[in-house]
What does this fold into?
Amino acid sequence: MDNPCLRCGACCAYYRASFYWTEADPFLGGTVPPELTVPLTPHLVAMRGTTHPPMRCVALDGTIGEQVLCTIYPRRSSSCHDVEPWEEDGSPGTRCSKARAAHGLPPLEPRTDRPGPGDSPLPLSA
Ligand code: SF4
Ligand code: SF4
It folds into this structure.
């Protein structure tokens, strides 16, 4: 399956990527590089670049709508799993379509093979 996220990146430049602060604390098993985060509340941090416009996660490399890459993909936060390209029934993801529309991109075509859960955006390779 061709991975449309590698030619998109819209959700990484639309939604706030916030999560519990321990996900960015290596001493507590966190994986997100803390230097790429900013404090949000006493309990939450967010990826730099996603707290106010112009939105663009600092970990996103490339040109939106052309070719992109999450530079910390294996270490990304739980919130980065929230946007899926497709719903479990194969229809375009609601949050995906909203982010793509904000960047002038059309919704993805429906998938007929029913992707099921776990199709997260922006893996390092297709
Ligand atoms: S999940 Fe959707 S909006 Fe996010 S990168 Fe993939 S195709 Fe783009
Ligand atoms: S998937 Fe990567 S580039 Fe996208 S918001 Fe998460 S950390 Fe940032």
Q: What stands out?
A: Residues 94-102 form the longest helix (9 residues). The helical segments are 94-102. The beta strands are 18-20, 37-39, 44-47, 60-63, 67-70. Residues 4-102 form one domain.
